[in-house]
Request: fold
Amino acid sequence: MDNFENKEVEQQPEVMDNRENEAIEEAVTEQLHTEEFATVYNPITVGEIVPEKSNKASLGLKVFALIMAMVILTATACITGYYIGKSNGVFKPKVNVNLASKPAKTDEMTAAQVYDKVSDSVVGIIVYNASGAASYASGVIYSQDGYVVTNDHIYSSVAAPKFKVYTQDGKEYDAVYVAGDVVSDLAVLKIKGNGFKAATFGNSDEIIYGENVVAIGCPSEPTEKASITRGIVSAVDRRVQTTSSYSARLIQTDSPINPGSSGGALVNMYGQVIGITSAKVVSSDQEAVGYAIPTTTMKYIVEELIKEGKVISRAKLGISYYAVTNIEVELRKYKYVGLLVDSVAEDSDLYGKLKKGDTIVQINGVNTDDDAVVLNIIEQSRAGDIITVTFVTESGESKTLKATLRANIGESSYQADINRLPQNPDGNKDFNFPEGE
Reply:
């Protein structure tokens, strides 16, 4: 009897434990179905409840994962779009150089010191094609990533040209044509690589008459070291007709510029490139006279050639004219000094406002008794600028009007079609390099 009772007493707590466990399980199940609190029931250890993150935490994790996925997708799309845009020319490179002022209170360098500073920025160029046509030229390294500025006329006689560029350390590079401009006679090539020694460009507006300068280029053999000649600035703003039959304001120097030096550097005695050599005038009654494109012109032209592939901001008036001088009026050949209008282009803002026979006597209040004055005004302006034009009609009526300058979009003498220019006359496929340009 005692044993039986004791056994029942001993079993009673066990029954209570099972009930408690069942109650706990029901409570756990109910809690698992609530939105405020989620738990994990551990069947191995009865009654132990292991708390886990709430639904709010789980939701935050999902939101974070979604955001990260969107970031990755966006980055992938941007990278893909970049390379697609780059291949289609959507993204335009931009290279700017600063024109340095002459250092104050600093002595001029010797010619040897200038050469040592600048020569590594001057390159030799061979222009050639598959038919054997070729020419020599020079260039100046414009930026560390391999842009080279030279002349546009260096490939004018070579159809479908290819380019070899030689640096002063004896290395040879294939170069690609970037863009060129006939009017300014400037062009840009690109060699692959980085870390090239770019020239220091000075401000050509600071040039003075009689200033000592040197010309550095590769006149005879592009694969050899650059040579140097010395002279002075003969004129700072000489308007001449260039090799491309356009009028331009150039730096004139008596520093000899030999064949093959086209595209080389005109340098002041502080080691600053102040011009890109462009043409040479030699006649029986004249000593060698060299010309260089001022860096103030070079800067904006080259920047647009690199970024746009052509010059787009240069301005034009859009008329053809004859410049009537005081002497011609005095001799009664014409009635008025100024620009005697011959024709007006349809894309000019003066079209329909001026006609043949009218004479422009002032632009922006400046007398047009010298057409160089007019050309200077236009060159210093940009497309979209508004100028004031005063003219006299054939009947003697004076009128003044406003005109918006149009863009003088540049073209290049570069010709990609090898069949567009004369082939080598003797049909020889071997390269027979001439003396240069």
Q: What stands out?
A: The chain is about 25% helix and 30% strand. The helical segments are 2-32, 55-87, 111-118, 295-308, 326-330, 371-380. The longest strand covers residues 227-241. The CA atoms of residues 242 and 248 lie 7 Å apart.
